[in-house]
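Data deposition worksheet. Section B asks for the primary sequence of the deposited chain exactly as it was used as input, without tags or linkers unless they were present during the calculation. Section C holds the resulting structure in token form. Section D is free text for depositor observations; keep each observation to a single sentence. Incomplete worksheets are returned to the depositor.
Section A, Depositor: J.P.
Section B:
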Amino acid sequence: MSSKWVLSWSQMRDGLRADKEHWKRRGISLPQLHRGYHAIVLYRLARLAHECGFKFIGWGIWIFNNIWTKADLPPSSKIGRGLFLPHPIGVVISGAIGCNAYIGMQVGVGGLLKAPERDIGGGPGLPVIGNNVIIEPRVLVLGLVQISDNITINPGSIILNDINQNNQI
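Section C:
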């Protein structure tokens, strides 16, 4: 086994541990019984397979995750530790999300339907969301958007421009 595999496996375990702790801080004592936690575990497994060069297996796990939890969390997305996803149905995340994020139901994070311009860290044409961000239900974050740390986005918002501490939604 290569050191990259061991490092990635330990990173996945640390991520799952942080996810479980975040769920417990939110008052869920047994996150393993919730479909949102299943979505996170399956995403982390798919991401691990994708990063270790088993892209076909990673995308297969993504398909199973999409069928089982109704969440679209592709292994090419970069999601930090401590994700809280209580209602995964209708959630789509393409891009990068920092640590300790809360994602409400029916949230869409991704690119616009045009040719990708540049990469700000989430992938070509995809958004980057900071740490400790709360995204309430029915929010769309689209395009080359950067959201700084410790931001709360109100329900039903459509985000097409950068958000920093000064212009919090």
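Section D:
The CA atoms of residues 135 and 155 lie 8 Å apart.
The mean pLDDT is 84.
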